[in-house]
């Protein structure tokens, strides 16, 4: 469900992009350069008989300048610009809606190739010094966590690398080009939108490489965070290939409760997940911490005993805890704990030696809470249908 018109300060519906190149039956298929990592871009230039260093030049145009027009890439020869326009393109997702909230949060609804929508949210903090972009990795999600509205939508498909980095590209283009490192339109990226990033590994990793690349978005590895519900083998693979910050959606300290909230726990239990976290930290180039995400749900995981179990569980793991008050959606069957209860939970953890941060909900008036981004999903798993049926049965 996208509540695209509700309660925003400045709603701005934008025209859909032209789809001529994609839909023409006679035109040769153009290679989209947007989602290519440096390595892939270098291979592309070699494949058209050009030198490798062209990759860095074109990456700068695309990701630093936000340019999608080869003709404007003036440090390339005219012949190369013409050649590129014959064989390649820079095609980002179409912006169908852009809104800003009274607290400064901005949201974009983007249309991807098959007409699905994904959402991207830019959340300002620290007096505007930090601007965190919450990026989606899939249309829907197959993992069906019981408290997550994306999970209730079922799974449609993986986003391509171009569609993932395209979210950063659109946000940066909209806020303004990156002229200097002190004034970045996007300072942090969290893979906490729709979808489970480690279930779309092959597209998420090249996109994150671009986030880190100096000719891409130039973000430090501490400022790019992948959030996962715990796909253990892929955490190991990730640590072998790229060094980014890792957030684990834990939500419970016992296997019994976690399996109820995060069904994936039946496959990869808490012990195996924490072991994978230790292995991941051992591979990081510098001293790092895991972020533990804990969605606080009233009377489910918000009692003192839960805080004690959590503290005991995390004793050995270098980590920081983020408490996320449950964000209600219709017929979820769960409730958000009161502010007092949230603070009590935080205090229990504090007394047990942990500083936990309660994540405030931002962009409420544009339906933009991170982790709550919901697109128009064509449900391949028919989960949404079953969910609707169960709601109707409940209502009868
Ligand atoms: N699939 C990944 C990343 C996307 S979800 C993951 O699960 O980590 C991003 C975060 O939002 C996760 O920590 C998730 O547990 C949390 N989340 C999902 N639904 C929520 C809800 N209704 N209220 C609060 N947090 C929620
Ligand atoms: Fe998927 Fe994450 Fe939602 Fe679970 S919480 S259903 S893994 S998006």
Describe this structure in words.
The protein is α/β, with parallel strands linked by helices. The chain contains 13 helices and 14 strands. The chain has helices spanning 20-23, 38-47, 54-64, 78-87, 149-152, 161-175, 201-212, 232-241, 255-261, 270-283, 304-313, 339-351, 383-395; strands spanning 31-32, 88-89, 94-100, 106-111, 117-125, 130-134, 138-140, 155-158, 188-191, 224-228, 245-249, 290-296, 319-325, 356-358. Strands 3-4-5-6-9-10-11-12-13-14 form a 10-stranded mixed beta sheet. The chain is elongated, with a radius of gyration of 22 Å. The two termini are 23 Å apart. The chain binds S-adenosyl-L-homocysteine and iron/sulfur cluster (SF4). Iron/sulfur cluster binds at residues 141, 143-145, 148, 150-151, 195-196, 229, 249.
List keywords for this structure.
disordered C terminus; single chain; 396 residues; ten-stranded mixed β-sheet; two-stranded parallel sheet; elongated; binds iron/sulfur cluster; 13 helices; alpha/beta; binds S-adenosyl-L-homocysteine; disordered N terminus
What oligomerization state is this entry in? single chain
How many E strands? 14
Given the structure, what is the number of helices? 13
Shape: elongated
* Secondary structural class: alpha/beta
Q: Mean pLDDT across all residues, rounded?
A: 86
Unreliable residue stretches: 1-24, 374-380, 387-396
Strand content: 15-25%
What is the rounded distance between the termini?
23 Å
Main sheet makeup = 10 strands, mixed
Order of helices and strands: HEHHHEEEEEEHEHEHEHEHHEHEHEH
**Rg, Cα atoms, Å:** 22 Å
Q: Which kinds of small molecule does this entry bind, naming each only once? A: S-adenosyl-L-homocysteine, iron/sulfur cluster
Helix content: 25-40%
Order of adjacent strands in the largest pleated sheet: 3-4-5-6-9-10-11-12-13-14
